[in-house]
Amino acid sequence: MKEFYLMRHGQTRFNVQNRLQGVCDAPLTEIGRDQARQVRAYFEKHHMTFDQYYCTTFDQYYCTTTERASDTIELATGRTDYKRVKGLKEMYFGIFEGQPEYLHPKALPDGQGFGDFFVQFGGESTTQVRDRMELTVRAIMESVAEGSKSLLVSHGPSILQFCRRVLDPVPDIHGLKNCSILHFTYDQGQFELVSIYNPVEEEYIYRGEE
After folding, report:
1. How far is residue 124's CA from residue 118's CA, in Å, rounded to a whole number?
2. Which residue blocks in 10-155 are alpha helix, DSSP H?
3. pTM
4. What is the per-residue pLDDT across 72-128, written as a single tens digit (0 to 9) for each?
5. Stronger pLDDT, 9 or 200, i.e. the higher one
6. What is the DSSP-derived secondary structure letter of residue 132?
7. Residue 153 φ then ψ, to 5°
8. Which of 94, 83, 66 is nearest to 9 (CA)?
9. How far apart are CA 123 and CA 92, in angstroms?
10. CB atoms < 10 A from the CB of 113, how many?
11. What residues have CB less than 8 Å from 157, skipping those under 6 apart?
């Protein structure tokens, strides 16, 4: 069995301005940088203790190619030996990149996200995001050693679409706050969600069966 922790980046300027970031980038705010520092304090204090699940250190570190993700992983871990992976990137919104969030449509029911809406504007469909995220995370997990523990820093909507692709049933998750951490196991090709924890507010969002 292998374990990985899939974390959302810290707060950015576009988060504050309620703008779609997608594959474009916006720097972390000072709050976002402080959130990442709080994650590091959490790691150091608890040695990655999630109840009975114990991890002394990470074996591998990954993040997307955006500044907001790389700054988050550096502040949260103090490491610079991470790998940048394009496949972990945020959903691409085409010409809506950087535009106010109120311009995009409401999400479709039953966890379908935005469907194919952004494709007509040069962006990705929900299915494309799910395919990309599953293939990327699965490839990472197949490349690491048995018994290893990895940290992956990605983006809220992409993480949620990954969950909707690989989990059945899917937990009732409507949004992930900045720096929320999803703890997964990967065994014989199967993903299992152990917990979702918000270290900034020190609360569990989700706990699997113990």
Report:
1. 6
2. 13-17, 30-46, 67-77, 126-143
3. 0.91
4. 999 999 889 899 999 999 999 999 999 999 998 887 776 777 889 999 999 999 999
5. 9
6. H
7. -110, 125
8. 66
9. 5
10. 20
11. 90, 91, 113, 129
How many CB atoms neighbour CB 36 within 10 A? Answer: 27
Tokens of 188: 């014989």
**Cα–Cα distance measured from residue 46 to residue 183, given in angstroms and rounded to the nearest whole number:** 15
Q: Which of 208, 209, 162, 199 is nearest to 41 (CA)?
A: 199
β-bridge partners, 108 = 113
Measure the CA–CA gap between 90 and 93, rounded to whole angstroms.
Answer: 9
CB neighbour burial string for 191-206, b if at least 16 within 10 angstroms, e if fewer: bebbbbbbbbeeeebb
Q: How many helices (H) and strands (E) in the chain? A: 5, 9
Bridge partner list, 207 = 195
The SS3 assignment for 115 reads coil
| 88 neighbors 64 (Cβ within 8 angstroms) | yes
d(CA 34, CA 200): 9
7 vs 59: CA distance, rounded Å? 16
| Cis previous bond, 100, omega within 30 | no
Q: Which amino acid makes up residue 86?
A: K
Q: Which residues pair with 154 in a beta bridge?
A: 8
